[in-house]
Design brief:
By secondary structure, the chain is an alpha/beta fold.
């Protein structure tokens, strides 16, 4: 398998090269030359596999420059009950009305980002040791990527991590998880701005090819294809669990034969084993992994993007116009990890939507967005949009509070505010007979203030995370300046 850029650079690259590189030299994002296709026989063969075995099968389709025994060892060391607290790794829980919650936050930092970053850390370590090289990781976080990356990479001598976060805009728990780390290879940088400012700085540094190569800059954000690839696995795992338990779908029922679907496509039938996923999203990375799974042939009926008040993606799927917001227009909300108004992974989907035409993608993301801050799909592209299975919805603070209260009262299930955005939007997109899986974002303990507002009680916290807000902090505050961040990186390389 070889990889190409969304902006037209078709120079074929191997997996381990793009693993360490992050952005492509032309500023685009890497995608595989093609999506391997999965048939019914393969799905049947994979159905009974453990999570680690399933991950090995999927990753093997995209990684051919790591020997199979080594890749299997990496995967087996990553997805263990000891790390994720359960043999299923991402178990499903029924929450009524045909809705399922897929647990993704049982890892060390209590957020779904652990699912990919634990693997990414092990892949980095393997490849850098094989090459005898050192890598500087530059990343941006709106809340959970930072801690997940730092916990996965801390103490690894061949890796130095520089993580940008928006100053004062994460929850106290999220800040403490990152800033309390004292490992010499971890560097926290709080940027005076919003997440999009942090993300812009990361991209600007990565686009300075001389600086990037001189200082060996890599990426841990979802702009790194390896991270997104790891997330593809749990869509397959969720599908297998939901369809194996389909007789227990609660109030969901199969419509009469030939009945119209609310989406205008073919109606689900008793023999149709498709499922839908609702994904809380701001940067489009998590749901983009679902898009990849669907392109591979996983029977996904709908991919529903759930946004908060920062509704750039919801606006696009409703109108066909992608319009980024500036810092002053980016709302500070109670689901802060989604306070994003420039979805970096969205470019990957647009590349597929536009027939993998890199020149057209470059014109939109490299020119039109920079000049006008927006673009609209032409009529032909907008007509193709429904065939990719996307839908969307928006949730507000009041919706989050109401959803948290309702689910706790009716099912005894406590969810974090991002997951609440997902449940609220998922309820608006249910189809009879089609399981709807909501991807969990994080454990409620990370957002205690909102849980207390909704329920009047403190969320439970793992013993290992008790009192972290009181620990000493190691963080520097910088202006939203590319040069300031570069100066922060350079002395560490001396």
């Amino acid at each position: 398998m070889r990889y190409i850029s969304t902006r037209g650079d078709a120079t074929p690259r191997a997996f381990c090269d793009i693993l360490l590189e992050g952005l492509a030299p032309d500023g685009g994002l890497y995608l595989p030359h093609h999506y391997p296709q999965i048939d019914a026989a393969t799905l049947a063969r994979w159905r009974g596999l453990s999570y680690a075995d399933l991950a090995f099968e999927i990753l093997s389709l995209y990684i051919d420059d790591i020997p199979a025994p080594d890749l299997r060892a990496i995967v087996d060391a990553t997805y263990t009950e000891a790390v994720f607290g359960t043999p299923e790794i991402t178990p499903l829980k029924a929450i009524g009305d045909g809705l399922w919650l897929q647990a993704l936050s049982n890892g060390p930092t209590l957020a779904f980002k652990d699912m990919a970053l634990q693997l990414l850390g092990n892949l980095f370590e393997y490849e850098l040791e094989r090459r005898g090289e050192v890598l500087n990781i530059l990343g941006a976080t709106s809340g959970d990527t930072g801690s997940a990356a730092e916990y996965a990479l801390r103490g690894k001598p061949m890796l130095r991590v520089f993580m940008l976060s928006p100053h004062g805009r994460m929850s106290p728990f999220q800040q403490a998880q990152m800033y309390s780390l004292q490992d010499a290879n971890i560097h926290n940088i709080a940027i005076e701005g919003v997440f999009d400012d942090c993300q812009d700085i990361v991209k600007a540094v990565s686009n300075d090819l001389d600086f990037k190569r001189r200082h060996r800059i890599g990426a841990v954000n979802s702009i790194n294809w390896a991270r997104l690839l790891a997330q593809v696995v749990y869509y397959f795992a969720g599908y297998f669990q939901a369809t194996s338990r389909a007789p227990n779908l609660g109030s969901a029922s199969v419509p009469p034969e030939g009945a119209a679907s609310p989406w205008g496509g073919p109606a689900a039938t008793a023999n149709d084993e498709s499922v839908s996923f609702t994904v809380p999203t701001g940067n489009f990375g998590n749901i983009c992994a679902g898009h990849v799974a669907r392109m591979m042939g996983l029977p996904i009926r709908r991919l529903v993007a759930a946004t908060n008040e920062n509704d750039v993606l919801d606006e696009f799927f409703r109108t066909g116009t992608y319009r980024v917001r500036g810092s002053t227009e980016t709302h500070e909300t109670s689901s802060p990890s989604m306070d994003i108004s420039k979805a970096s992974n969205f470019e990957r989907f647009i590349f597929d939507l536009l027939g993998r035409d890199g020149a057209r993608v470059r014109a939109k993301f490299g020119e039109r967005i920079e000049r006008e801050g927006a673009f609209s799909l032409d009529a032909a592209s907008r007509a193709k949009l429904p065939s990719f299975g996307f839908a969307s919805g928006r949730s507000t603070h009041a919706d989050r509070i109401a959803t948290i209260r309702d689910l706790y009262k009716s099912r005894g299930v406590m969810i974090d505010p991002h997951t609440a955005d997902g449940v609220k939007v998922a309820r608006e997109h249910l189809e009879p007979g089609v399981p709807m899986i909501v991807l969990e974002t994080a454990q409620p303990a990370k957002f205690a203030a909102t849980i207390v507002e909704a329920l009047g009680i403190e969320p439970p916290r793992p013993a290992a995370q008790a009192g972290i807000e009181a620990l000493p902090r190691r963080v520097v505050v910088l202006p939203a300046s590319v040069d300031a961040v570069k100066r922060c990186i350079e002395p560490d390389m001396a």
